[in-house]
Amino acid sequence: MPANLPPEYFKAEERYHQARTLEERILATEELIRVAPKHKGTEKLLKTLKRRLAKLRSELQERRERRVGRGGGPSFAVKKEGAAQVALVGMPNSGKSWLLRKLSSACPEVADYPFTTREPVPGMMQFEDVQVQLVEVPAIVEGSSLGKGLGAQPLSAARNADAIALVIDASAGALQQVQTLVDELGAVGIRLNQRSPKITIQRRPTGGIEIRGVEMVEGGEAEIKRILHDRRVPNAFVVVEEPVTREEIEEVLGESIVYRRAFIVLTKYNLPEATEKLKLLESKFGTLFRIITIEDTGGGLKKSIYENLDLIRVYTKRPDEGPAKRPLVLPKGSTVLQVARAVHRDFEKSFKFARVWGSGRFPGQQVPRTYVLHDKDIVELHA
User: Fold this and answer.
1) φ and ψ at 165, to 5 degrees?
2) Of the candidates 187, 128, 171, which has an alpha carbon nearest to the alpha carbon of residue 271?
3) Of the candidates 27, 157, 289, 345, which lies 20 to 30 Å from 67 by C-alpha distance?
């Protein structure tokens, strides 16, 4: 089937061949993907372009990491404290500093000009008996991943966080703000509300290439070996558990992709047009992100942020004693065995059963090691 490429495609292709820098080649390739028709006749072309884009971005990321390693710029990583670290990511004047002031004791400068914040600012948010660390990330703009604005370094703070709050100004182009932030984070290898593909690649010193699950990859064993050869991996044990693309395999090999939980915080919600903006956001991004509107800057907003972290609090107790005052904070879906492991990693070896108050059918119910706990459960462990 003919591709029937438009004139805009050939102009972008010419810009690609004339590009002198990695950044220019990335921009030209992104434009080629954008203007190329999407139909059966261009499937192979689009796969090639996406493969090229992934390789160019990987090269750019490696170059930046080498530059920072030589002292080419300060690290924007913030040491984690509390139950979780949440990065507040947004465009200039989206309300990040205001939000951090309202929810924590931090005092970032608040002004009506762009790039007021030029380095990450942390603050601790107290929600009931749990502390969550909020980190205001310097403003992101379209092209930050390629060096525009304050460059790509602010994105590294988001990369290190446990979760990302996309702070969106309801008064100005909310849809475009979300799309820009998603694109810029994606360009530096941060995937939002996605899970990693079920593929394991274990490099080894000898033994050649051993593959299980070749039927899960288009092109089978030959394609996987070609990818490994291109990446100069002569010996590896590969296990593929679900259908994956070449791009996903290359991302796993590159080890530069991270997967982060994310949600939207809509600021300036008291404006007349804000309700309409919320409806538009829900229609386009509602299936990907939970959306929090700022109507209450007190406990209600803190609770919404905490709930979007998908954490639970578990209080341990000894027999004939009351529960601990400070909870263990674990991912939602954690089991009794994981509580035993959190208490002491050697304790799980002798652990037999537990009694649970809270989510059980009756107080002090005896439960097995695999019992899934809920927020505010009290657990008594027995060895």
Assistant:
1) -100, 115
2) 171
3) 27
